[in-house]
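Reopening closed ticket. The problem is back. First fold of the pair:
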Amino acid sequence: MPDFSIWPQCNIGCVFCSNPVSGFRETTDKYSYAEMVRKVGKYKRGLRTFVKFDEVGDYFNLTGGEPTLHPDFLKIVALLRTEFPRSLVRVLSNGRLFSYEDFARRTMGVGLAPFEVAVPLFGYDARTHEATSRTPGSFAQTMAGLENLRRHRGPGQRVEVRIILTRIQLKSLSGLLDMVLEKLSWVDQVVFLFVELEGFAEQYRDRVCLTMTEAAAALDALYDKVVRLPEARLYHFPLCAVPPRLWPFVYNTLAGFKVTWLDGCASCAHRPQCVGVHKSYVKHMGAPDIRPFAAPLAVEPSGDRYHPFGLPKEARAA
């Protein structure tokens, strides 16, 4: 699954952004449509032209910066759909440009299926959302963009809401889940991601950093809301940092080169089901909450490496 960065610039300034602090946004000359065609062609011929997740080739993540800002964004989506008609194409976008209804309609029209758009929400209103995006008006545009995606999605097209767990987000997390349940219950899934402490996130470390145990405990405290969300998922969490009743929501999605294992992990009874520890977490936080299990807990495994534990009964019934 290539992570395909198609544009380095962005129209918001998130404090947790993992892109490089200097130089990255000034590299637009490396992202021409001709260059995208060249990369896709090489990938189709079996050459490794994407750094991340090349070992899995069943779908593409279009990332940035903000991928929808590319002057030829729709042409790039059409290119991937033509060259890989059966592959999932997922756009990781802040959603602002989808507030223009024609753009949302055309994107879904070109994307066909299977196609997904994943949009992050940082808060339940302009004040809480824009404390992270640092862009006035971005909350209203993102919400309008989500509504346009709902209106114009077709069969085989999914919309995902992403919630990046930082110290800032925890302050408004309960209200954000209430807002999603009330206004966005139609989305296909809600994904909680522990912040990757890279790029801009390193610069704002004091504002965003928290332990994985703190983030997981905040979700556990809102368990009754989490189980009611559309297909809730937790990304980037090692199992020992998560209360066992949340294990069925854990998915293992990190690329191998981003992960490390600490002393004791080799003997952990749940290592086969665990994603490991993000290297940036060890670097910045010291991973104080990583503790191996001497014996397996009474949580039924699913046999799926990427979703190691099945959903609880109350989540299936929600």
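Second fold of the pair, where the issue appears:
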Amino acid sequence: MRLTTYDNIDALRELEPEWNALLERSYSNRIFSTFEWQITWLEAYQPDEIWVIACRDGDDNLIGVAPWFIQVRPDERVVRSIGCVDVTDYVDLIVDKDWIEPVLQTFAAQMIEQHERYDRINLCNIPEGSPTLDHFAARLGNCGFETALEFQEVCPVIDLPETWDEYLAQLDKKNRHELRRKIRRAEGETQTLTWYTVGEEHNIDAELEAFLELMAASQPSKQEFLSDPRNRQFFEQLTARMYERGWLQLNFLVADGVRVATYYNFDYADNIQVYNSGLLPDKYGHISPGIVLVAYNIRDAIEKGRHQFDFLRGNEEYKYRMGAKDTRIFKLVARAAA
């Protein structure tokens, strides 16, 4: 196997033609690991040192990518995953399923060989079940690292059935009744209630601006988040790329001609990921616009044959009322043994 290290964005673009094809063959095929997501994050946040390692087999096929950067602190240098941690929900090594053991062993050996570049490894947001949590951690241990796995957060998900009625039947009696009641109230207490997903007939820039306004209006913390120019740049560039690839599912609930709720989702690999949201909580709070719109989103996902509806990170109560069950993400921390 042959390793190549990339330390700048321009050089990294060399991997773009092969990156997503590898991702589809990997155990970590999630939108946050696509080339589009990774390069957008790098452009917006400009980490201290890019450290991406690509692994090729004897026929020069790309079989593994370690998408890392090194954060330089006053007291230490930390290896982290691109995208970690604020705006990315899942991150992982990207390894061809047929090459898991040799590639992870090679990456671990490279970590010990290059240990003078950094002081600590901190790989966050690794989904449960990933070989990184056991195989890669074990290989690091074999190479002389002290390793630990730490529970980080939950990502509640709904495994979608074939019909809306089957979905409703999955809910307990109280939550099923409450959901139906909220939908009836919203539809009955407005003169018109519609929803739409942004498509070719819309101006994506104008629709994004409408989303950002609702996002900022929904919570002070989101307004503060968007006040950082880097975060706004990230959203703008990400939206353009995701929309171009057909992965963006940006939709709005419109009550009496007013956009009152919005979801910024991804439709990728037959799953829906709920990335962010916004609403007008005061004037229209009585019709529960966020819950109504997410219900419409779930019904739409079922009708389109999607397999899973993923609420991503966070244990907000409404996710469980909608029938979601916890999955977990972990952090792998390691340090070369003294």
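Update: turned out to be a display glitch only; the data is intact. The CA atoms of residues 291 and 318 lie 8 Å apart. The chain has a mean pLDDT of 96. Please close again.
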